[in-house]
Amino acid sequence: MNWGDFNVDLSDKDYAEQLKNAMQNRVDAVEGFATKKEGYDKLPDEALEALKKVVAEANTL
Q1: Dihedral of alpha carbons 51, 30, 12, 58, sign
Q2: Cβ-based neighbour number of residue 46 at 10 Å
Q3: Separation of CA 30 from chain center
Q4: CB of 55 closer than 8 Å to CB of 25
C-alpha cells in the first residue's frame, strides 16, 4: 500500500501489530469520551464502530 511518499508494508508483522495497538488505543480513548466529563466529549457511535472495524481488520493481518 502506498500513501504518497509513505509506503505501508502490511506484511510486516511488527508494523501490523503496532498499527493494531495504536488503533485499539484510539478505540479505548473514544470509549472513554463517552463516560469522562459526563460524556461531554462523546463522539457519535458511528465513529467508535468505524474504529472497531479497523481493529478487527488489523487482527487479520
Answers
A1: negative
A2: 8
A3: 10
A4: no
pLDDT in tens, 4-57: 787 888 889 998 899 899 999 999 999 999 999 999 999 999 999 999 999 999
Sequence length of the chain is 61
Kind and range of the H or E element at 2? Answer: strand 2-3
Provide the 8-state DSSP code for 8: -
pTM of the model: 0.80
Q: Domain boundaries in the chain?
A: 9-58
**CA geometry: angle at 16 spanning 21 and 51, to 5°?**
50
pLDDT of residue 24: 96
Return the ∠ at Cα 10 (arms to 48 and 45), rounded to 5°: 5
